Amino acid sequence: MANFDKFREECGVVAIYEHPEAETLAYLGLHALQHRGQESAGIVTSDRMSLHIHKALCFADAMPTEKKLSRIRGMLAIGHTRYSTTGDSAVLNAQPILVQSNKGMIALAHNGNLTNAQDIRTQMEARGSIFQTTSDTEVIVHLVAQSREQTLPDAIADALRRVEGAFSLVMISPDRIFAARDPRGFRPLAMGRIPAQGDQRQDTIVFASETCAFDLIGARYEREVKPGELVIVGPEGTTSRFYSSTMPQSSCIFEHVYFARPDSRIFGRSVQESREELGRQLAREAPADADLIVPVPDSGVTAAIGYSAESGIPLRFGLIRNHYVGRTFIEPQQSVRDFGVKLKLNPVRSLLEGRRIVLIDDSIVRGTTSRKIVRMIRNAGAREVHMRISCPPTMSPCFYGVDTPRKKELIAANNSIEQIRQYIGADSLAYLSLDGLKKACHDGEKTTYCTACYTGVYPTNLVDVEEIHPVAVEKR
Ligand code: SF4
Known about the structure:
This protein is an alpha+beta fold. The chain has 17 helices and 25 strands. Helices cover 28% and strands 25% of the residues.
């Protein structure tokens, strides 16, 4: 789970077909996906005649009170929770995007980044199209509306063939739910089922970015939506088609390292198992002579469990995270050193004093936070601090839906490991190798992964990189 918002995922999506409380299930699903973005949230439902929308700028405001629920009650629903990586952060860009088109009413919720969105938009605007948002997602809706295909499923397939980059998306029409993944399968999208109950005539089919959403709504995981697949659920049942020719799969390995919740299955594999194995592998590759393993909470915890199990060094929670840090707080008038980190983390002096510590985290971005944490542990009396990172150095930005700083701001892109060690003030520093990362996540078995942020080798043509990559947003 996210740690200090070092990186930010842009979105989580859910879809429900069909259930007498579809809007409530969509809301609960989004609740479980808030770690993927909580800047805005929205739900669109269908009562089979028309679509109804509720959007809000922050997740808490999207809370469906009885009154709000009664306005959007439906049998079908899609939902979206968002942290923006393209477009302005405004309710205007909150999703789902709902339009009345020549193919009828449709709404779309999208996780990922389109790498040719600006290119398509420029061409469309030159031909007179008017866009309502600055989000890359809107081009998909325009492509669907402008498609010469006669049916909505054909028009969606046609639109998806024209966009490039990363997309896991769900769409709703008055009587159908659509779920699709890009041909390389960058972002996750799982399909599940809630068995029919009471006077329900059929099972409820659900889709979600992560399976932790299924657990909350009582759904059973069935399978992944496959790369290049379009699943359609409607009165005729569930059908599937592949709208694109096969491409080499490149699912985001960083979902396993950092983003997804450990209680989720991502790309068909348990995140908990991957993350523990990252720690075990790290212990084999970079052992340390030390007294205690201390994770940086929360994101370093699972890897630290693996490191401890492999090394035999006991794990203790020597850093306590304050989970109640609000958006606003009163800063002390006189500057307190490392105040921001102290607000979120506090060392347990009785555990750290006089000990040699292996500090486990999942990444170092700019190095500023790691430096403060190492200093915090030393100030609490630790004798030695050995930093271990459960993935390789982050060398390049992501263009597929993860908000990383620009290359010039990534410490590992511009410094040697020894220089980084000196900067953060650790006694030793080691990262997991790329091979170790792939091995821990079972690369090449069920899934092959994108590792571009560690290698700089991108799996797609980046048509309009500069346009889609925003200013660095890491705020600590
Ligand atoms: S560049 Fe990194 S974060 Fe982006 S999709 Fe690839 S592995 Fe994931």
